[in-house]
# Entry
Amino acid sequence: MARQNKREIERQKAETHKKQLELSKARRRAGGELVAPEPEMEVKPSILIYCEGRNTEPSYFNQFKVSSAIVKAYGEGKNTLSLVEAAKKISDDASDRGKPFDQVWCVFDADPKPDNPKQLENFNAAVKQSEAYGFGTAYSNQAFEYWLVLHFEDHQGAAMPRTDYDPKLNKYLAPYGVTYDGKGTKKVGKDMFAILFEVIGHDEKGNPITRCKQATARSKRNYDNAGDHTNPGKEESSTRVHELVTELQKYT
# Structure
């Protein structure tokens, strides 16, 4: 009973305080005094990054220190057309709940498979459909790891078997005592992520150049030189991950 009385007393005090504040505001308005506006809550843009891989891509994108946007990056093991359609459903469901995403990005690979004669057709169709939906399309040909290789190697865009990615990455990471488990967890750990953004020099104006900035320039050059992009499944090696990375960096 004592506890109930105490709660009732506190409730009455809160009500009295609220009424006093309202009365005070009314008096200031009546007297022509300026009333400070109520602070508005900042509405951050929301970005969905739907990935083919369950580990590599989400572990990479979720490490970006994005402060002025809400980013959700994950993967469910889907690929090409099934991935794009799943992203569309997630986007539509969010809109139906009144919380639409401001941006949707699809991240998937060409991943050539000799035993799948429709692989090229499906990949090209996925790129076309993703763009038709207005989604960002950060594909890689052959795989996402090619984007990581470009942080260390000035590859000019010729064909590179995906079996070369892991050995190359681990050769470059070895001096740091870091490894990339491309046949196991396939995760980009925090140590590896830090290396990808290491400052490796400065431009003529003294601005720092990171490995990521270097990879972005190489990736953009290779993509621009790959062709007319009407048949992206044939444009090996190329990637558009740099477009998504550049977008995320606007919100860091």
